[in-house]
Write a structure and sequence with these properties.
742 residues, alpha+beta, Jelly Rolls, Immunoglobulin-like, TIM Barrel, 8-stranded parallel β-barrel, 6-stranded antiparallel β-sheet, 12 helices, globular
Length: 742
């Protein structure tokens, strides 16, 4: 029988070694897997986290392994390339940091053994990802196992797959289920026993055969209905020799149908089921990507609490445990490979191998409905090599899995008539109007225009969001990184997206703040702060509750702005979110106002005198907070960026005159302002390679988005893209703007 031994303990680790050790080192660090060497420097900013080759070594004796005829090492995640050595012999070189791979150890096992795994996350031109807005944590960051099997066993080496494929097809009230297994070393006299069990563990149908593929039937099938009823069956196949069980594989599966329609959106089992959800990265503060099962469960609990019914698992293959949780909780999943941001002419083979691994390892998950081919890959435009790469991936996905669709996530500036968007089955765009330029009102109309031009292409929004930290204001504005602006942004986007039925899916970017070591924004470097929940999962931002109000059935009420206590205005706006139709606000114990709202957002204007205790009541739910009148704005609430070229307080801004704190769009409407702006842009353009900064082409679409940036914010953002201007240069431009009346 198959036996699995967890191999996470008793490893030694070195970041300084430069060759494979021949014996156990004496001075290396003791570590337990999962492990990453970038859990600190990959989250502290500067874009300088260590990327290179590190070494893991472990000594073991064969007698301590489970009994078996053959032994396989299973590595569930080694970012991004790995070499495995056993007793000095190189066994495998694997490229791809997010998938499972295995290697047979049998022929090289000795009584005493030295196992070395070299893991490399250094920059190269062949393995994806190489350019993206997240940290590429290096390490053995998922479980490592030893699998002991008989000579005849279910396959363990084909692209890290489970050795079993289950394809259910609905036929009226029943389901036909094709079960296919892959057997290594099958011998005469051996037989396969197939069983389908329901969720209660009862056998629905059993079958014995010498064939590695059989058709079985589930009468009156219980369908997988997403969050409403995520019912799962189990397929179990035993490899038997007489009465002896040689090996066994099991997998859960769900019986469901789906359709993505250009007008009706997403349909599950023939009924409309709008996909409204979040994207998720696999890391957290102080841990990096070396997550435990408890971390995964907490993430899923928070996603369920917010009311999402779909998750985009970005931008790579996630842990099998999390896909299992998606199946169990009824999450509809977009799964993708890390073909992202920068097309690598030498990377085609890697996109193909990563797609083969993604589909082979995840074929049986009912939660997955689309395979993502790429994300924002046309940042620098598309060419024939890029297009051909996508056609190959698209055909490969359909060949390997005819039951699911393909999709891509387009960068906002990608032309809606680019041949790139014609390749996959369905489409989605990443838009940040209202954060990276433009304004919030542009989002819905952009999709309306696309839908008008391409009425036969299903369209969704694969990313949208804005950043928020513990900064606060009563006058939120784009780019201020306040919790209040993020809440406003998501209120507007919810109203625009959730009322457009043709949008097959929408994904908030992001459910959680995540590590992006190159970032220098918001006053806390090294992170992307677009999450609805903080990086450490300890604080749910107000925008979290905006989604909960629209998506969750669990009654609640939430007063926004709990971290914004000290306020200067005489009358202050108090925002309340609830999924109940009516909210009553109490001020210092007395009823102040009762409101009804079909949009789930309630706005009260409350006198601000001394200390005020607020209490919101909706049905049987209530929530409380406190505000305090102050005479001068509390500067601890105002963003002060670390490492910025300029901060807001460096800039003189006479009333009635322009300054760097005004938006590019406002300045461009003034003739004198346009001349000053032209000088600034000329200085930036001179530093760009071919009119591009960090791969972004400075075209008309990019310029239109940038109209919503304040001048100082644009200068700071362009600084992170390698376009540098000095503080003195910018202050001189500000002096010129101060002479121009608005």
């Amino acid at each position: 029988m198959r036996r699995i031994l967890n191999f996470n303990n008793n490893w030694l680790f070195s970041k300084n070694a430069n060759k494979v050790p021949e014996k156990m080192p004496e001075d290396w660090e003791k570590v337990r897997l999962p492990h990453t060497w970038n859990h600190t420097d990959g989250q502290d900013g500067g874009g300088d986290y260590y990327r290179g080759t590190c070494y893991y070594v472990k000594e073991f004796e064969k007698k301590d392994l489970p009994e078996g005829a053959e032994y396989f090492l299973e590595i569930n995640g080694a970012n991004s390339s790995a070499e495995v050595y056993l007793n000095g012999v190189k066994l495998i070189y694997h490229h791809g940091g997010y998938s499972t791979f295995r290697v047979c150890l049998t022929d090289n096992l000795q009584d005493k053994n030295l196992l070395v795994i070299c893991v490399d996350n250094s920059e190269n031109t062949k393995v994806y990802p190489q350019m993206a807005d997240f940290t590429f944590y290096g390490g053995l960051y998922r479980d490592v196992n030893i699998i002991a099997v008989e000579k005849s066993h279910f396959d363990l080496e084909y692209y890290g797959g489970p050795g079993i494929m289950v394809t259910p097809r609905l036929t009226g009230d029943d389901a036909e289920v094709e079960i296919r297994v892959f057997v290594s070393g099958l011998e005469e006299g051996q037989e396969l026993h197939y069983t389908i069990l329901n969720q209660e563990g009862e056998a629905v149908e059993e079958w014995s055969s010498k064939d590695t593929s059989v058709q079985m039937n589930i009468p009156t099938v219980h369908r997988w209905q997403g969050r409403r009823d995520p019912y799962l069956y189990t397929a179990e196949v035993k490899l038997m020799e007489g009465e002896k069980e040689l090996d066994k594989v099991t997998t859960r599966f769900g019986c469901r149908s789906f359709e993505i329609h250009p007008e009706k959106g997403f349909l599950l089992n023939g009924k409309k089921y709008p996909l409204r959800g979040v994207s998720r990265h696999q890391d957290r503060w102080g841990v990096g990507n070396a997550l435990s099962k408890a971390h995964h469960r907490e993430d899923m609990e928070l996603i369920c609490e917010v009311g999402a019914n779909t998750i985009r698992l970005a931008h790579y293959q996630h842990d099998q445990y999390f896909y299992d949780l998606c199946d169990e909780k009824g999450m509809v999943v977009w799964a993708e490979i890390p073909y992202i941001s920068k097309h690598l002419p030498e990377g085609r083979d890697n996109t193909i191998s990563q797609m083969k691994e993604l589909i082979t390892q995840n074929y049986n998950h009912p939660s997955i409905v689309v395979w993502g081919l790429s994300n924002e890959i046309t940042i620098a435009g598309s060419d024939e090599d890029l297009l051909e790469n996508h056609r190959i991936l698209n055909d490969l996905a359909h060949e390997m899995d005819p039951t699911r669709l393909t999709t891509i996530a387009c960068v906002s500036m990608c032309d809606i008539n680019d041949p790139y968007i014609q390749i996959p089955d369905v489409l989605a765009y990443n838009h940040y109007f209202g954060w990276y330029g433009g304004d919030t009102s542009m989002n819905g109309p952009w999709f309306d225009k696309f839908h008008e031009v391409h009425p036969d292409i299903p369209i969704g929004c694969s990313e949208y969001g804005c950043e928020a930290l513990n900064w606060h204001t009563s006058d939120p504005a784009q780019g201020d990184y306040t919790e209040e602006y993020q809440a406003y942004y998501h209120e507007e986007l919810i109203k625009q997206f959730f009322t457009r039925d043709y949008l097959w899916a929408t994904y908030v970017w992001n459910m959680f703040d995540f590590g992006a070591d190159a970032r220098n924004e918001g006053g806390e470097n090294g992170q992307n702060h677009k999450g609805l929940v903080t990086f450490d999962r300890k604080y749910k931002k107000d925008s979290f509750y905006a989604y909960k109000a629209w998506l969750s059935d669990q009654p609640f009420v939430h007063i926004c702005g709990k971290r914004y206590v000290n306020r200067v205005e005489d009358v202050t706006k108090v925002t309340v979110y609830s999924n109940l139709p009516e909210v009553e606000l109490y001020v210092n114990g007395e009823s102040f106002e009762k409101q009804r709202s079909e949009e789930h957002f309630f706005y009260f204007h409350v006198p601000n005198k001394g200390k005020t205790i607020l209490r919101a009541v909706a049905g049987e739910c209530q929530d409380s907070s406190v505000i305090q009148k102050v005479d001068v704005f509390d500067e601890s609430y105002r963003l002060k960026e670390k490492g910025a070229i300029l901060n807001w307080f460096d800039i003189t801004a006479p009333e009635g005159y322009f300054s760097l704190n005004d938006t590019m769009g406002a300045i461009m409407k003034n003739e004198q302002g346009r001349k000053v702006l032209a000088g600034l842009m000329a200085g930036m353009q001179a530093q760009m390679s071919g009119g591009k900064a960090m791969g972004f082409e400075m075209n008309d679409g990019m310029m239109k988005m940038m109209e919503g940036f304040t001048m100082v914010r644009m200068a700071n953002l362009m600084g992170t893209a390698g376009v540098k201007m000095t503080k003195e240069q910018l202050l001189e431009i500000n002096k010129q703007l101060n002479l121009i009346r608005k």
